[in-house]
Amino acid sequence: MSSAPPSPDGNVASRLSTWAVGTPNQPALIVCDREGRQTDTRSFEELDRLVDSLAAGLIRIGLEPGQRIVLMVRPGVEFLALTFALFRAGAIVVLIDPGMGLRRVITCLEQTDPHGFVAIPPVQWARLLYRKRFPSARLNVRVGGWAPAIASYSQLETPAPQDFNPPDISSTDPAAIIFTSGSTGPAKGVEYEHGMFCAQADLLQGQFDIAPGERDLPGFPLFALFNVAMGVTTVFPDIDPTRPATVDPSRIVAPIQQQGVTQAFGSPALWKRVGHHCEEHGITLPSLTRVLSAGAPVPPPVVNSIRQALTAPRADIHTPYGATEALPVAVISGTEILGETASQSAEGAGTCVGSLFPDVDVRIAEIDDRPIARFEDLTLLPNGEIGEIIVRGPSVTKKYFRHDRATTLAKVDDHDSIWHRMGDVGYIDDMNRLWFCGRKAHRVETGNGTLFSVPCEAIFNQHPAVFRSALVGLGKRPRQQPAIVIECEPHTSPSDELRDELNQLARSSPKTNSIGSVLFHSAFPVDIRHNVKINREELALWAARKLGVPTSVPGASLSTE
User: Which helix (H) or strand (E) holds 321?
Assistant: First the structure.
């Protein structure tokens, strides 16, 4: 495998310059219409020149290294060019998923006290409407259309002077603040350093043997940043990336076929739609050698439908495990899921998330909701025992932005390194594979022991009438009342007979035989980003009301994504 030579400095944007010299004519990005045809393209050399121009323009209007700039533009040339221009100019790029809703977006961005917005007109108008909440936002650039701003994207495109010399940036300098989705607690800004982005790209490239010159379709636009660092062409589909569960699958399939895409990334919700579409229409995707899916475990039927569409030798779907604060950590292939671990998962073993990435360390610690300052204060558990997953490695972030309480809860100091508490529970098996058993906050502590969401729910999910299930705990730990909430398959209605069958299932396993309440819910509340993470806190409140139990539902004291 060929990879980029070391960058001349620590700035992740220098990776782009490296590829612009080494492969100047290779497309860095291709923008597609709904039929998969090219509507715009830039080579690595062209993108690098554009980034220089934009970076020089940003500095010309007053941008200084270390200033925080909110970037909110649609996927495409402007998104990629502006991201790397801000990196090159030394700014801290603030990135947030607009799909979480205006009110939550405004609240999150207010926390960062940004120095400006580089954004499309609707965002600039919203910034103006809420201007009292952004008193430092003076470096505002509109991208397309018109809105109040000190400059436009087109004005920044003026070619950079020949003697343009961007500021020196080290690998430990801050590069971005990226917000968690807030699906399992309040959204928080995660501080990224330049070296962490480079480490992520290197880990992914090494693990999957991604060759420069490959073509990747990112269902989540942020992953296009890794492509630039790896010398890979980004193919932007014509979709709304904030709504993966409702994406038109033909708009994913068409660019894969038309542009010879070799790798594609998306959430399980996106691949469910694509896999069903390919099955229904007998479509194969011969150019694809690698499908990546993250955000939540991929159900085996989705794994199978995607694998059926992949016809290239050794092509497979892979599910990297990690979080906004620590990515990647582990990975498992579809072949391993279907051939070995899916049957164990169905019996309540948890979800195997696979083998660890090189240079990534994982330990399992005794579950504790309190802050733990030092690694030596942790109680580590042996293989096979379920506990809290903690991780360290070159891409693991060190802190949240201006959120000391969350940092104290999530980070553990180990002299010259930092461990991140994932907020997940799981165990390591005898083959050194990591198994995920759910969120720590979603465990249910009863008088007879602790129940974990993923192993328990797997027992109920075996029933053909069950679309998905959610374990909830009613009352206070450690004497909670466990209940299971069921969302039925489409065209299947709840009934007393079905309830009896599910109660019988519960009694059949030692993992679930203490669950005495089965409730039916018409449509689970799920996260916005991936459309698959169940909001069990909301379901627990609903279940408590249904059963007449006091609604004292414990929240996550360690809320990381």
Answer: strand 316-323
Q: Which amino acid is at 33?
A: D
Question: Would you give the distance in Å from CA 95 to the centre of its chain?
Answer: 13
Cβ within 8 Å of residue 484, ≥6 positions away = 456, 457, 460, 469, 470, 471, 472, 502, 506, 512, 515, 517, 518, 519
Residue 245 makes CB contacts below 8 A (sequence gap 6+) with 269, 270, 273, 526, 531, 532
User: Residues 392, 419: contact at Cβ < 8 Å?
Assistant: yes
Q: Is 538 helix (H, G, I), strand (E, B) or coil?
A: helix
Distance of CA 197 to the CA centre of its chain: 14
Task: List all residues 6 or more positions away from 538 whose beta carbon is below 8 Å from its beta carbon.
Answer: 525
Distant-in-sequence, close-in-space partners of 107: CB < 8 Å, separation ≥ 6: none
Using alpha carbons, select from 168, 178, 169, 167 the residue that is nearest to residue 200.
178
For residue 263 the two structure tokens come to 């790798």
Indicate if the pLDDT at residue 462 is higher than 80.
yes
pTM of the model: 0.94
Pairing of strands 434-439, 351-356: antiparallel
**Residues 162-190 as b or e (16 or more Cβ within 10 Å = b):** eeeebbebebebbbbbbbbbbbbbebbbb
User: Which pLDDT tens digit goes with each residue over 336-375?
Assistant: 999 999 999 999 999 999 999 999 999 999 999 999 999 9
What domains appear along the chain, each with residue ranges and CATH number?
8-243 (3.40.50.12780), 443-547 (3.30.300.30)
- pLDDT by residue (tens digit) across 392-407? 999 999 999 999 999 9
Residue 484 confidence class, pLDDT cut points 50, 70, 90: very high
Encode pLDDT of 6-57 as tens digits. 555 799 999 999 999 999 999 999 999 999 999 999 999 999 999 999 999 9
